[in-house]
Structure formats: C-alpha cells, structure tokens
Amino acid sequence: MMKTFIPFLSLRRPRGRGTTVNSDINVKVKSVGERMRIGELSERTGASARSIRYYEQLGLLTSARLGNGYREFDDSAVATVDTIKALIDLGFPTELIQRVLPCTGDAGPAGQDCGVLMRRVAEIRDEMDAKAARLIETRDALTGFLARAETGASVQLGAA
C-alpha cells in the first residue's frame, strides 16, 4: 500500500475577514502496477483501439473506468491482448477464445475444467498439422511440375 496525499478542502475568506480552514485527508491506495490507457495498450501490442474495445466487449479483457470515462488497463493486459491476437491468428473463433483464455494464464482456470478445452485445442493443432502436410505435398507437386515444364521447354528450344 502506498500513501497518497490528496488535498481535500481549502477554504479561505477574502480580505483577511475571518478564519482560514485547511483540511487534508490521507488516503491509502493499493498499487496495482503500471496502468495505461487504450492508446498505449494499442501501441504496445499492435492491436487497434477498436479491437481492444471489441475484446473488452466480449469479456476477454477488462479495464477500469476513470471519472472521465477513459479506459485504464493494468500491465497484464499486454500479455492478454498478445494471447488473444495469437489465438485469432491461429484461426480460433472468438467463442473458443472466450473459453480457452482463462486456461492460458498463470493463475490457472477461473472456475472451469480446462481438460476438455485443451483437447479441443489439440484437435485444432492436429488439423493444422494435416493442412500443413497437404500444403507441403502441393508445393512439392508444383515444384515437380515446374521442373518438368522447364526441362520440356529447354528440350523444345534445343530442338528448334
């Protein structure tokens, strides 16, 4: 806990007529680490402010609201946004991300069994491996086709 001094009340009567009252209150504020607004979070993660608002709307990310309505995020939001972006880049639908995200943190699952979800993630990984293998086969077939076409073209040019 850190102590923060906040001037609470300062009343002064003009022209020296009366008493001056100064009152200060000391408030203890729990330090929560580095805080940042949406623009800084966007800059640090490469996610647009619009995406960050969307993640928050889906419940994937949380922020505190300041008195002026601005969002304020703690430093753990950077890792959360990076994880969300990675899962989206891997092709995860946001519905699955909502269920998987609590299983990715250091604190562990938030009241849910992650076993079923992790099996689904493993299935997605295996599907990606199969797609990658098919892409490699297709690339190799195209490479062979190009090599044969190039050889055929050079033979035809040599025959002319």
Kindly give the count of domains.
2
Mean pLDDT equals 76
Q: Which secondary-structure class do the elements indicate? A: alpha+beta
Principal-axis shape: elongated
Biggest β-sheet: strands ordered side by side in the sheet: 3-5-4
Number of strands: 5
List unreliable stretches of 5+ residues: 1-14, 19-31
> What distance separates the N and C termini?
88 Å
Strand content: 15-25%
CATH architecture of the largest domain: Orthogonal Bundle
Largest sheet: 3 strands, antiparallel
Helix content percent band? 40-55%
Report the C-alpha radius of gyration, rounded: 29 Å
CATH topology heading of the largest domain: Multidrug-efflux Transporter Regulator, Chain: A, Domain 2
Q: Number of helix segments?
A: 5
Keywords: DNA-binding, Repressor, Transcription, Transcription regulation
InterPro entries: DNA-bd_dom_put_sf, MerR-type_HTH_dom, MerR_fam
Protein name: HTH merR-type domain-containing protein
Pfam families: MerR_1
What does this structure look like?
53% of the residues lie in helices and 18% in strands. The chain is α+β, with helices and mostly antiparallel strands and 160 residues long. The chain has a three-stranded antiparallel sheet with strand order 3-5-4. The N and C termini lie far apart (88 Å).
What is the strand and helix layout of this fold?
Layout: E1 2-11, E2 21-29, E3 35-37, H1 38-45, H2 49-58, E4 64-65, E5 71-74, H3 76-89, H4 94-100, H5 114-159
Antiparallel strand pairs: 1-2, 3-5, 4-5
Write a short abstract of this structure.
The chain has five helices and five strands; from the N terminus they run βββααββααα.
